[in-house]
Amino acid sequence: MENLRTVRGVNDILPDVMHKHNYINQIGASVCNQSCYEQVDTPIFEFADLFIKPLGETSDIVTKENYIFKDKSNNTLMLRPEGTTSVVRAAINAGLTQNLPKRFFYYGPMFRYERPQKGRLRQFNQFGIELLGIDNVFGDVEVINLGYNFLKKLKLLNKIDLVINTLGDQESRLKYREKLVLYFNKYKNDLSEESKIRLKKNPLRILDSKSNKDREIINTAPDYSKFLNKESTKYFEDVCKALNDLDIPFSSNSKLVRGLDYYSHTTFEFKTNLIGAQDTILAGGRYDGLSKMISNLSLPGVGWAAGIERIALMIEKKYTFNPLVVLIPQMDAHNFKVLEFYKKLLDAGIRTEMIYSGSLNKKLKRANKISATFAVIVGENEIKKNVVQLKNFQSGEQVEMKFEELITMFKTMDVSNC
Question: Does 344 map to a domain?
Answer without folding.
Answer: yes
